[in-house]
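Lecture 7, part B: from sequences to assemblies.

Below are the input chains for today's worked example.
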Amino acid sequence: MQQVFFFYFALVIAATSVLVVALRNPIYSALALLIMFFHVAGLYVTLHAEFLAAVQIIVYAGAILVLYLFVVMLLNLRQDDRYHRQWPMAGIVGATLVIEAIILTVMKGWTAPVVVTGTEMTVGATTNAGAIGDVLYSTYLFPFEVASLILLVAMIGAIMLAKKDIGEC
Amino acid sequence: MTELSLRLAVTFAQILAEMSIVMITVATMTYFERKVLGWMQDRMGPMEVGPYGLLQPVADGIKLFFKEDIVPAGANKAMFALAPMLTMVVSMIGFAVIPFGPNMTLDIFGITIKPFVVADINIGVLYILAIASIGAYGIILGGWASNSKYSLLGGLRAAAQVISYELNVGLALIGVLMLAGTLSLVQITEAQAGGFWHWFIWGGRPDGFFPIHTQIFAFVVFIISAVAETNRIPFDLPEAESELVAGFFTEYSGMRFAFFVSAEYANMTLVSCVAAALFLGGWNAPYPGTIFEYIGLEQLAWVEHIVWFAAKVYFFLFLFIWIRATLPRLRYDQLMRFGWKVMLPIALANIIITSITLYFFPR
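Predicted structure of the full complex, as C-alpha cells:
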C-alpha cells in the first residue's frame, strides 16, 4: 500500500517537474509546480512528517507560488525562446545530476543500513510538531539562530532595496 | 481488507454528511444574509417565494442552474473551467478537521470511529492554514483566465490581500496553540472544557479565576483578518462593485458563478467554525458539564454539545452580516496599511505577552 502511494507521488513529481520547464505558457508552468508541491507534501505524509507537509504547502504553495503567479500575470510574457541561451548550462547541470544518480544507484548495495539514533526514536513518542520543536531548540539551536539572522538580514535588505525607488518618505 | 473497506465506507459516509451540512448552511446563509440585511436597512428582505421567502435559496439554485453558461471569447477555456472548481473544492476540504461535537468514539462492526470529526489529525490548525492559503488560487486563476481587465485586477488584489492577511491569521492563532500545547482542533477544544472563563478568549486557569492568559486581542485580530481573507465587506476589494464591476468573477455566469458565491459562504462558515473551536470553546457549554448530564441522560449529552457549537458558529456568521451592513469598504492602501501596521504588531505583541505570562503562570 505504502509503495503504491510512493510510486504515485514520485511519478507525478517527476512528470510535473519536467512540465514546469517544458511548458511554454508560464502560467501552466506555475500550476505544474503547484501540483508538484502538493505531491511532495504527500510524500512527507507517507513518511509521517505531517508537520513538514503542512509547512510545505503553507510556505511554497500558499506564499511563494502566489507571488510567482502575481508577477507572471502582471508581466504577461509569452516569448517562446526564453530558454535557448541556457542550453549549454542546462546540459552541464543535467549531466552532473545524471552521473550522480547513476553513482547513487550503483552504490546503494554497498551502503550500511541507516541506524536509528536517539532523536529519530523520540519522534514516534511525542507528536510531530512537538518533536521538531524539541530538536530545533536543543540540538539544532545554533543553526536555527543563524538561519533566523540570515532571514532577518535578507528582510532588511529587501526593505532597503524597495525603499530606494520611493525616495524620501 | 474488509476492515479497510469498512473504514473507507464510514469515512465516505462522514464526508457526505459533513458536506450536506455545509451545503445546507450555505443555502441557509444566502437567505439569512438577505433577510438580516433587509431588517438592518428597514426592509422586508425576500418575501415572495414561499412563506417569508423561505424557499428563496431553492429558487436561486434552480435559476442559476438553468442560466446560460457564457465563456468569454478570449478566455483561457481550461483555466476558466478549473478556477470555480478549485475554489469550491478548497473551501470544502477544510471542514475535514473541524470537530462538530464531543470527542467520543463509537464502535461499529469492530472498528472505532469518531462520529463528529472526519479526520482528527495532529496538525489540524496547520492544515486549516494551508487550505486557507490555497484558496487564493481559484480567485487568481479565475481573474486571469477571464481575459478581462476588471477580473485580472480583482484577482491580483485577492492575491495581495490573502497573502497579507493570512499572516495575521496564523500569528493570532499562535497564542492559542501555546495555551493548548497541541495543533489538533479536538484537543484544543477539550482543553477549554469547564465553563465560560476557561474558553481561550478569556484563558482562565483551572486553579485561579483571574483570566491572565486572555487571548481577546488575538481573537479580535483573528476575526478582522478572517473577514479580510474571505473577501467580505469591508475588505471586499477583489470584488468591489463600484470599482471593478464584480471583480474576479465578472465574466462568470450560471453554475460557475454559483460555485464562487457558495465557496465564499463555505469559507465564512469554515472561519466561523475555527473561531468557535479555538477561541469560544467549540462544543463546550458556557457552564461546566452539560444539562443532560445533571438530569441523568449522559448518552444524550452530545446533542447539547452540538447545539452549542452550532450556536457559536451562527453567532459568527451573524457577525459577518452585521459587519457588512455597518461598515463601508476600505480603500486599497488603507487595507494594506491596516493589515501590516496595525494587525501585525498586535498579533506579535500578543505572542510575546502570552509567552511571558505562560512562563510565570504555567497552566
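Note for the exam: The first strand of chain B starts at residue 106 and ends at 108. Keep this in mind when comparing with the next example.
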